[in-house]
């Protein structure tokens, strides 16, 4: 309440340009805006998915070429081992292939599948080994990591083939 006994809301009740009523106009505008935002977000998500799929397809083709060249001319595939998330244990896998990073955290199998060689800590895995699931390969290994931790896939492939 102010000094004249009127509340602020009462003083400004008719001062805006919008007609007072049931608020249906504002509700429809808000729902239209939300629908537009939802559609824009869906379009962005769809574009991101398409871009990631195209990147993975290019990387898969590069890895298939690596497997073909390495199988024909060497180096020979090695048994792949996974490391525990804490880095203290190494686990056997049923996979053979080539490590893509010097820290042996990423590899390509002889079937051309890309693997992240990490597994949860498990006492049973020390004896039984671990089953890993192939992942979608990126064109940049370790993208978004610390400085010096990212590596282009073509550079990793040339290292495997003895080019660096």
Describe this structure in words.
Helix content is 41%, strand content 18%. The chain is an alpha+beta fold. The strands form 2 sheets. It has a 5-stranded mixed sheet. It has a two-stranded antiparallel ribbon with strand order 6-7. A hairpin with a 4-residue loop joins strand 3 and strand 4. Helix 2 runs parallel beside helix 4. The protein is elongated.
Q: What is shown here, in short?
A:
It contains four helices and seven strands.
Given helix and strand content, the structural type is alpha+beta
Percent of residues in beta strands: 15-25%
Low-confidence stretches: 10-17
Quaternary status:
single chain
Give the overall silhouette: elongated
Order of helices and strands: HHEEEEEHEEH
Number of strands: 7
Q: How many helices in DSSP terms?
A: 4
């Amino acid at each position: 309440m102010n000094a004249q006994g009127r509340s602020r809301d009462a003083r400004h009740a008719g001062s805006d340009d919008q007609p007072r009523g049931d608020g249906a106009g504002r509700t429809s505008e808000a729902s239209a805006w939300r629908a537009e935002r939802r559609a824009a977000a869906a379009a962005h998500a769809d574009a991101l998915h398409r871009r990631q799929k195209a990147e993975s397809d290019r990387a898969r083709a590069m890895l298939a070429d690596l497997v073909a060249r390495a199988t024909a001319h060497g180096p020979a595939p090695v048994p792949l081992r996974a490391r525990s998330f804490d880095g203290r244990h190494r686990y056997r896998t049923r996979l053979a292939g080539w490590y893509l990073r010097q820290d042996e955290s990423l590899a390509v199998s002889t079937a051309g599948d890309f693997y992240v060689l990490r597994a949860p800590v498990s006492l049973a895995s020390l004896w039984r080994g671990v089953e890993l699931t192939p992942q979608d390969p990126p064109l940049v290994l370790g993208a978004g990591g610390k400085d010096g931790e990212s590596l282009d896939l073509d550079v990793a492939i040339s290292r495997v083939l003895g080019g660096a």
